[in-house]
Hints:
214 residues, alpha/beta, Rossmann fold, 7 strands, 24% strand, globular
Amino acid sequence: MSDTFEKMDRMYHLQRHFYDFTRKYYLLGRDQLLRDMDVQPGETVLEVGCGTARNLIILAKRHPDSFFFGLDASEDMLDMAEAKIDSARLRNITLAHGLAGDFYYVNTFEMMDRFDKIFFSYSITMIPDWREAIDNAINNLKVGGELWIVDFYDQKDLPRTFRLMLQNWLKAFHVRFWSDLLPYLGTLETKGLVRLQITPIYKRYAFIARLEKV
């Protein structure tokens, strides 16, 4: 586990200073996910892999009567996130250091009840144990709660040259589209654990998935 934390800090120690500026050009669909999530007053919302808290700050400003939480494996990114949250003078965001497959709402965030919503924004493709991360997120949701994912898709509707260039470039940042990811989400629905909706966006550049826990 400590190796994972150290790896994340090495990766983002410098990147954190220009992360938000560069990512806005290719992490497409993040704002659509934030708009599509119907956050109600008083609800609790967790982002797994929150990075610099860019998404959480948008949501916290938009929904001042709701409560937002962020989890990340990189302490360097969390330091940057904390500074940005303080600068925005937001008091409805709580951050924690941890791994996607290990957090628990009671121990990690000292909460009395599970989350209303949990989302992954371009973090699933960076998590080797992504199945455990998804299963753990569902376990930390209330019945009727929603798990949202926005991430890279297979780009099959885009030119092959572009697709290969993008995928090779992303590998340098330890990003990989898991070919069995969407089929795995389908098995969760087949087992009766969730109701699933998957929406490809930008010619399969990315996808947005909504899973409602049943």
